[in-house]
Design brief:
It is built from four helices and eleven strands. The protein is of the alpha/beta class.
Length: 182
Amino acid sequence: MVLTKSEVKLNFGDKAPSFHLKGIDGKTYSLDEFSDSDGLLVIFMCNHCPYVQAKIDSIVKLHEKFKGNIAVIGINSNDPEYPGEGMENMKKFARDRGIHFPYLLDDTQEVAKIYGATCTPDPFLFDKEMKLVFHGRIDNALTLEEEPTEQIMENNIQKILQGEKIEKDFEPSIGCSIKWKE
């Protein structure tokens, strides 16, 4: 496990890059399918990373709390040949962890590169116009042992739904590095 911080490639106000990715349900998803939402949370995640495993319950709760307003999607950009990754492992992880939002496979890793994703989890929050308003943490717990005292992403989602400005548009997420193909 290589601990990595997210980096800035997309800047505040940049439009969400488009994609066409296959989900664990066999359907191919594009960015356009989420344009009716009041916002979009794109989370680069995977199955084996202990940081994703530590945050997945919070991510599932975000989806449950804000579905109907904010679309949530998970994108797995790890090399599908990496142990514990690939479509079949994604399906099992989603079943085991109660994931009911689209979980997509970026097997070419091009989407991660366009977004500038570097770690798992690496969340990007977009507003109704699909412009980036926040890139960063789910909460303020930075180690696996810490309990969060602030729900950063939930607070930021509330702000965009209420038409308020998010004061800090980047707080680097911390997690395992994306497992790039050789």
